[in-house]
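Input record, target 12 of the design panel.
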């Protein structure tokens, strides 16, 4: 039987400051909403914007990056997978559902004045996401499963006053 593909790519703006929490085992979890906007031209020739809101969840090191650098209004690039959770509502007894994007890759976009913190110089990438009940790496930063990526063009800090040039950068 053929394997399915569950991959989401989004570029948008964060709607409000992320909510950060930790499990009893100490795993960091960041939850936040991302707005993407589609612009279409109607039959009357007028442009119409349609905004879609996405619930995003990041774990462990990615959640720490979100906590430190992502704020309301930040423009980010996200890769992840869709997951729908279900539970029984304690009050009504009805089954409830929530669809979320589990973040695998996060890139901070924009400059210092556009929501990204001055210390944010790129993004953070994980090779695979972990689910709520499957923490991937309970320790700190592990080069085997986590890699930092940097986008020199759009969000690298300016070190011109410190004597660092492009020749000093190893890549």
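The sequence produced for target 12 reads:
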């Amino acid at each position: 039987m053929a394997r399915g593909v569950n991959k989401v790519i989004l570029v948008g703006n964060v709607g409000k400051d992320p909510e950060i929490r930790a499990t009893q085992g100490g795993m960091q979890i960041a939850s936040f909403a991302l707005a993407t906007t589609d612009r279409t031209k109607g039959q009357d020739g007028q442009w119409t914007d349609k905004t879609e809101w996405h619930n995003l969840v990041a774990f462990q090191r990615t959640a720490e990056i979100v906590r430190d650098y992502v704020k309301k209004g930040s423009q980010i690039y996200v890769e992840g997978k869709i997951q729908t959770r279900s539970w029984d509502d304690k009050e009504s007894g009805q089954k409830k559902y929530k669809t979320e994007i589990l973040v695998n890759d996060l890139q901070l976009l924009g400059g210092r004045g556009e929501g990204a913190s001055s210390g944010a110089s790129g993004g953070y990438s994980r090779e695979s996401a972990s689910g709520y009940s499957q923490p991937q790496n309970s320790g700190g930063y592990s080069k085997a499963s986590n890699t930092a990526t940097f986008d020199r063009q759009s969000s690298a800090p300016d070190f011109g006053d410190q004597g660092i040039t492009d020749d000093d950068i190893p890549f």
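Residues 8-34+49-134+142-155 form a domain with the OB fold (Dihydrolipoamide Acetyltransferase, E2P) fold (CATH 2.40.50.140).
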